[in-house]
Amino acid sequence: MRSYRCWFLSDITHVIAHYQVDICTYRNNINKVLTTLIGDSDWAIDCCKWGNTVFLDINKSAGNVTYPNQDKLTYYGYKFEAVCTGQDHVDATSEFAVVVQYQLGQHRVLMAAEVDAMKDDGDGPVKGRPYVELKTYKIAAHSKAVGALYKEKHPRWWVQSYLAGISTLVLGGRDHNGQLHKVQEVPVQLLPGLSAQAGQKWDPDALLAFGDAVLGWIIQQAQLQPGRQLLVSYSHVERRIDCRPVDGDLPQRLQQLLQ
Fold first, then answer.
1. What's the pLDDT at 157?
2. Model confidence at 140: pLDDT above 50
3. Which residues contact 80 (CB under 8 A, 6 or more apart)?
4. Residue 207: which H helix or E strand, with range?
5. How far apart are CA 30 and CA 23, in angstroms?
6. 113: nearest Cα among 7, 252, 229
7. Which value, in Å, is the radius of gyration of the alpha carbons in the chain?
């Protein structure tokens, strides 16, 4: 279903020009689409067909839900990353990102993704060094919370990692006060099986197939209005994906980038 090449973000214009790409996007957009089947959140994506490629841009008008203690919980994640990567302070202003190309069903996707860290050795895309995704989670205090971990977090972690060619998760279990109690490495490929063993089965192939179908539909809609910005949106209440033309600067930005 997926094979990928890897580049740095500075190479993106060359890659678009050299390779036949159906979809160019940030990982955030593909995450939204693939996790539609296991979530109850609305989402929105801006898109525009320019040349032979449909470009997807991040739209925060839907699904941008805030929750109590959001800043504190975000800090826990950044702090865990700093500890794992040997930094002496928390830096939320910088990131390492790559561009990966892969085949999702019938569609060639070029995707930018942030990468948290790399292992020192192994079988990975950069000089043999595998990518690592760093995640914190609250240690479950009751059975319902345990179920949510396997049913909701595992598929999201899997999608996010799988799409970017990340083979290993490093998970930090914390308590309510942010105190770290355990750290464990989990191969990404084991997540579906671990969820199934816990009685919270989900099907990764179904997520990929759904994503392939939605991307195909988006491409069809964009082909009808090339050079026009479109808004693709999902309503979890209606369980419906819509597409309509909107005013925006995405076509102008693409023209400046690709001319």
1. 97
2. yes
3. 134, 135, 136, 172, 174, 180
4. helix 204-224
5. 10
6. 7
7. 19
Helices (H), 91-203: 143-148, 154-163, 191-197
pTM listed for this prediction: 0.89
Encoding tokens for residue 219?
């491409």
Question: CA separation (Å) from 33 to 2, 40, 44, 98, 217?
Answer: 16, 12, 9, 20, 12
In Å, how far are 1, 78, 89 from 75, measured between CA atoms? 35, 5, 11
195: pLDDT confidence band, cut at 50, 70 and 90?
very high
What is the residue whose two structure tokens read 């593909």?
Answer: 30
Rounded to an integer, what distance in angstroms lies between the CA atom of residue 215 and that of residue 109?
Answer: 10
Tokens representing 32 are: 């939204």
Partnered with residue 97 across adjacent β-strands are 114
Instruction: Enter the tokens of residue 109.
Output: 């996707």
Residue among 81, 84, 102 at smallest CA distance from 15: 102
Tell whether the model's pLDDT for residue 11 goes beyond 70. no
Most confident of 17-31, 139-153, 198-212: 198-212
DSSP category for residue 210:
H
Q: Give, for 180, the enclosing helix (H) or strand (E).
A: strand 180-187
Is residue 25 within 8 A of residue 219, CB to CB? The reply is no
